[in-house]
Amino acid sequence: MKVLFIIVSYNGMAWLERCLGSVAASSVPGTQVDLFVVDNDSTDGSADFVEAHFPQARLTRCAENLGFTAANNLGFAYAMRKGYDYVYLLNQDAWLEEGALAALLDAAAAHPDYAVLSPLQLQADGLTLDPKFGKLMKRACKSDEQAREIISVPFVMAAHWLVPVKALQEIGTFAELFPLYGQDDNWCDRARFHGWKIGVVPSARAIHDRAARTESKDRLIERNYYNTALVRLADINRPLWLSWLYVCLFTPVQALKYRSRAPFRLFSALCRHNAELRALRQTTNQCSNL
Q1: What is the pTM of this model?
Q2: CATH T-level fold of 2-208
């Protein structure tokens, strides 16, 4: 069995040693574990660090910041071309705890209908759930589900994703429509459309050490309005006309929330993507009929 870890690096020196080191320490009998690192033109020496301390990694140095989507797609293409069985998407600010990979691979072998399996994603203290992950689990879990081998969820963030390559071949890679945020939401939507499941394996534990981030008001609006709306519009599991109706109502609500006209400006940007949204939906639908 072959597993390819894909790590997109951008000025990630604060985490890379622990991130890549956890992969190097993830030994599973009978499993070849390889590293594929895409450095998005870092300026903090990240690429040089990887080359010096993890020479076994296949390192791609980009001449510009390709973004999360295009960089991961390089790894996806390599995995499919080289005959890997699984890919593991791992954020640069994330790492695995002991035994996590083995638990995920065991669950994947026993449940081949899952396109994504994630470990429990914890904060850096190793004790409390990542805030966003915690909200996801609270919505998804009933009290009697905590002991299950896999907890089914509609979506899980791509800080930790174990993906069978056969699912990747059927569903496709990340959509270029989402350069930074939303591509994982969209990929999960497409996976569910194809009949695959998304799940969390509670016996596997891993860290997602989100740095303390401060964002401008415009950045928050872009993330919370624009990306949310774009994901909704691209979701093939919903009629496009209904998604547009939702976004039309969502826009003034967000404008009032932020006391800003930015959502109306960003609504125009969403309209300009209508042809791409239709093409993505059509491609996904055609794939389901192959």
Answers
A1: 0.93
A2: Spore Coat Polysaccharide Biosynthesis Protein SpsA; Chain A (3.90.550)
